[in-house]
Design a protein that fits this description.
Layout (H helix, E strand, L loop, with lengths): L6 E7 L3 H12 L4 E4 L11 E3 L6 E3 L11 H10 L3 E3 L8 E3 L2 E3 L10 H15 L20 H5 L6 H12 L11 H10 L6 H5 L2 E3 L1 H9 L4 E3 L4 E5 L5 E5 L4 E9 L10 E3 L4 H8 L7 E8 L8 E3 L7 E9 L5 E8 L14 H11 L5 E6 L20 H8 L6 E3 L12 H27 L4
Parallel strand pairs: 1-2, 1-12, 2-9, 6-15, 10-13, 12-19
Antiparallel strand pairs: 3-4, 5-8, 6-7, 10-11, 11-12, 14-17, 14-18, 15-16, 16-17
Keywords: Oxidoreductase
Organism: Pseudonocardia endophytica
Cofactor: FAD
Length: 452
């Protein structure tokens, strides 16, 4: 290959929403851009695929959006003609707490409503202190960067109310309350207008991620799949990107758009800052997350079920995603995959385990078929979205998103707003492209300067 054919203005590593947004933005500014993806598909921690044995598309990873509150994603959807998918309202809202089934309409026993109100006020007052768009290490909220269990402990809540609040927090953490920072939930609450139950609204609308990504990618100079990156060397005049296959690509600048958990799998010369290296090693990704797409035999009423994973076999939510042509419901089961120390055994590789969790959430439901992808075992994600352990994000948030030399970083894991979401990924993609464009302008201006 002619060396000039393997030279680019910018190389973007990672073809999830952040990377594709960066690569598209840079291409539109007249740059020659190469987008590299280790997998054999686009999407990263999102993935649209056919449900087994059908022509129905399902979302195996991230998918939810909040219409009216996700402007970056909605602009892309409008530009590329991708519609929001809306799900019918559930017919029932049962909860399973402290080993008991509560049919509703309230999520906790009626005698605990005042305790429930106390918990909601506690969360609202805390989330109201967070200003979106400002890194969390610049907001004086270190006292909230504690385990979720410790955040709730002073309220002395009854078991059912405490389990319900912890379970709602599980939706954005996929970690037990003892292991995740309260800021994980409180920051997301602030995105939803400080509504503790705002996440329920997001479950009613989602994006067909594969369709949007395919259309965005058509506007990028060049895309290569099945191309893991082994090294990024910016110690010389150019940035040299070496693939796992031994090919070296030359660029003026690079965008790293891979999950934070995987940063240390690439050799950087010079090495990344200590903050980035240590945080990547700490594995703040939701490395216990589990999402399975279930086809059930037709139900008389399709519910939204919330349950404490301590008593439901690890699963904590069953939510509608639509229905098949014959009326069978498609439902998403969210849960925490089990460790040896857990009291439950949730394994999405086991139909028996999935069915047991289903029965704990919806007794009598008939499982026809299911599909799941273990992003925790996926070497190119090592977990799902970011799930902050206590004490880190208020130390390092701004440093984790900062560019280093000619390398910019784009991932929803470090988004200044809408952390861990598709919206956050697109925002970070725009930001990294802007940083890279400025870098390219400076490099071009300096190359025009001649010694006197």
């Amino acid at each position: 290959m002619n060396p000039e054919e393997n030279r680019y203005d910018a190389v973007v590593i990672g073809a999830g929403f952040a990377g594709i947004t960066s690569a598209r933005d840079l291409t539109e500014q007249g740059n020659r851009v190469l987008l590299l993806e280790a997998r054999d598909r686009l999407g990263g921690r999102t993935w649209t695929k056919k449900f087994p044995g059908t022509d129905m598309n399902v979302e195996m990873g991230g998918q939810f959006i909040m219409p009216g509150s996700n402007p970056a994603v909605e602009r892309e959807m409008a530009r590329y003609g991708v519609e929001t998918v809306y799900v019918a309202e559930p017919g029932e809202y049962p909860t399973i707490l402290n080993g008991k089934r509560n049919p509703g309409p309230f999520p906790v026993p009626i005698e605990q409503l005042l305790d429930f109100e106390k918990a909601l006020v506690h969360c609202v007052l805390a989330s109201s202190r967070i200003t979106q768009g400002i890194p969390l290490d610049h907001q004086g909220v270190e006292d909230l960067d504690i385990p979720m269990a410790d955040f709730l402990a002073p309220l002395d809540l009854p078991v059912e109310t405490r389990e319900f609040v912890e379970t709602v927090a599980n939706l954005v953490s996929f970690r037990p309350a003892e292991e995740v920072s309260a800021l994980q939930f409180l920051n997301m609450m602030s995105c939803f207008g400080n509504s503790p139950l705002g996440l329920y609204g997001a479950l009613g609308a989602y994006l067909e991620t594969g369709l949007l990504l395919e259309r965005m990618t058509a506007d990028i100079t060049e895309v290569r799949l099945n191309t893991p990156v082994a090294r990024v060397d910016q110690s010389g005049a150019d940035v040299l990107v070496t693939t796992a296959h031994g090919e070296t690509i030359t660029a003026s600048a690079v965008v790293v758009a891979t999950p934070m958990n995987t940063w240390n799998d690439i050799e950087f010369l010079p090495q990344l800052s200590e903050t980035k290296r240590v945080t990547s090693d700490e594995r703040h990704g939701a490395d216990r997350s589990g999402k399975a797409m279930l086809r059930l035999r037709k139900l008389p009423v399709v519910p939204l079920v919330v349950g404490s994973p301590k008593t439901t076999g690890g699963a904590f939510m069953l939510a509608s995603e639509g229905e098949f042509d014959n009326g069978d419901p498609l439902m998403a089961m969210f849960g925490m995959l089990s460790l040896d120390t857990d009291e439950w055994n949730l394994d999405y590789d086991s139909r028996e385990s999935v069915d047991a969790a289903l029965q704990s959430l919806l007794p009598g439901a008939e499982l026809v078929e299911y599909d799941a992808h273990n992003f925790n075992a996926d070497p190119y994600s090592k977990g799902d979205w970011v799930s902050w352990k206590p004490g880190r994000v208020t130390k390092s948030h701004s440093a984790l998103g900062a560019a280093e030399g000619r390398i910019a970083f784009a991932t929803a894991d470090v988004a200044p707003k809408w952390l861990m979401t598709i919206e956050g990924a697109v925002e970070c993609g725009h930001k990294a492209a802007h940083q890279t464009l400025n870098q390219l302008v400076r490099l071009r201006e300096s190359s025009l300067v001649r010694p006197l």
